[in-house]
Design goal:
Largest sheet: 11 strands, mixed
Strand content: 25-35%
Number of strands: 25
Shape: globular
Number of domains: 3
Radius of gyration: 27 Å
Distance between the termini: 43 Å
Length: about 450
């Protein structure tokens, strides 16, 4: 009888300990990352084993592929060809090749266009529609070490490590949500999923990934991972997810963001200048005479209505308007169109000082530097506004007396969820990563 009592007490104690034990953290696992950002549509590619012992699986054969081994992939007459370790080129009988690691190391991937990136883990190479589709098979925590420093910066570890931790949790949450709901592959593209640059960018930010290992943001009620969205700079006011993607999300709602004000340099405040004729031709009307902005409560532009001098008008969404002038593939600077949080100013045509049809208004020295490389003497007045094309195109040789528009804006990106610059500022003034995440995401817990 006493033994039965002891056994009962033991079982109760075990159950008590089990109940009090913390939840098992989200474990690392191997994921698939399609490399489309820098290596999408690659016709020729070279892959070198920089570290580790791999197996190369070609068609139905498997061969050892140790450190120093190389494979070149290309095409000939729409047929996939390959070359292994400087041997003769051969035609691939199948459409899928794989580099699978025994002791996982890293692979260097190069293209004739100059792309040169190093990835941890393995690589699957699929021949599809005249190009190679590359998929990196990598540990999820190692994947995050190639995400956090490219989404933020390794330099932010000095004084801003808590922001990097917040980014690690947000990026891990995004990964879990987008790979556990039936989507087996995530991309490395910041325009589709989140930026990933492999081992190439790993640095001090890796400490933030290790410090938050397994932690994700979940809904307070369902305990399911949230849609952890983020952008570079909120411009001082975050955006409601519904206003960007049309779907209500209680975790990503619009609210003031004072921590993003006064930080960020070029992305905090920018100015874009464009001539009335160029603005009109971009959207299928004549030289624009008037611009009307319809805005969301955050101040971001919902739609832009443009009217030319002939009575024609065109209305486009704020996002469409921004995309028309966004500096894709160009350095970010103050003379760029970076987001939909902006105001519009019109400088209308009139007679100039010499009695000629045109604009008598001159650009300020600051504005002049945005549209031309004038000398210091010229910058005192700047070029005539009639010669301005846009901040990105500079000036023309001839004048057009139709006026110009100046768009003054704040922030960079869609503004939904966490502002990365705001998070960095919060970290600098002493907030923890948990407090940062709590400020930017509503109704959430870290699990």
């Amino acid at each position: 009888m006493l033994q039965i009592v002891y056994r009962f007490l033991f079982l109760c104690m075990a159950l008590f300990i089990l109940v009090l034990s913390p939840a098992t953290p989200c474990q690392a696992n191997e994921i698939s990352v399609e490399l489309v950002w820098k290596l999408g549509q690659a016709s020729w590619v070279e892959i070198d084993v920089e570290q580790g012992d791999y197996q190369l699986i070609v068609d139905t054969t498997t061969r050892k592929f140790p450190t120093g081994s190389t494979i070149q992939l290309g095409w000939g007459g729409w047929t996939p060809i390959l070359r292994i370790n400087q041997e003769d080129y051969q035609v691939s009988q199948g459409s899928v090749l794989e580099l699978r690691g025994n002791n996982l190391g890293c692979l260097r991937v190069k293209t004739p266009e100059g792309n040169d990136v190093v990835y941890r883990g393995g690589l699957q190479m699929n021949w599809e529609n005249g190009h190679w589709r590359l998929i990196n098979r990598v540990d999820s925590e190692d994947y995050l070490k190639g995400v956090v420093p490219i989404e933020m910066s390794n330099e932010w570890a000095h004084g801003g490590i808590e922001a990097l931790k917040a980014q690690a949790v947000a990026a891990r949450t995004f990964l879990v949500r987008h790979t556990e709901n039936g989507q087996k592959t995530i991309t490395d593209s910041p325009d589709i999923d989140q930026a990933y640059a492999g081992k190439f960018v790993e640095g001090e930010a890796s400490a933030a990934v290790d410090a938050t290992r397994g932690q994700i943001l979940v809904d307070t009620q369902s305990k399911q991972p949230i849609e952890a969205l983020y952008s570079s700079h909120s411009g001082g006011y975050t955006e409601d997810a519904k206003n960007v993607w049309g779907t209500t999300d209680i975790h990503n709602v619009s609210h003031p963001d004072p921590y993003s004000e006064g930080v960020g340099g070029a992305v905090a405040h920018w100015r874009f200048i464009v001539s009335a004729p160029l603005l009109g031709s971009t959207f299928g009307v004549g030289p624009v005479r008037n611009v009307e902005l319809d805005k969301f409560p955050s101040g971001r532009v919902k739609s832009v209505r443009m009217e030319d001098g002939f009575g024609h008008s065109q209305t486009v969404t704020g996002r469409t308007f921004v995309k028309a002038f966004y500096p894709f593939g160009q350095p970010i600077r103050t003379a760029a169109f970076l987001g939909s949080l902006f105001e519009a100013q019109t400088i209308a045509p009139q007679l100039d000082l010499y009695g000629k049809s045109g604009l008598s208004v001159f650009l300020s020295a600051e504005a002049a530097s945005l549209v031309s490389g004038t000398s210091s003497a010229q910058k005192e007045q700047g070029p005539l506004l009639t010669k301005v094309l846009s901040s990105s195109l500079g000036t023309s040789a001839t004048s057009q007396p139709f006026g110009v528009f100046i768009f003054e804006g704040q922030g960079w990106g869609h503004g939904v969820g966490m502002s990365q610059w705001g998070a960095y500022h919060m970290a600098q003034i002493g907030y923890t990563y948990k407090e940062i995440l709590s400020f930017y995401y509503n109704n959430t817990l870290i699990q």
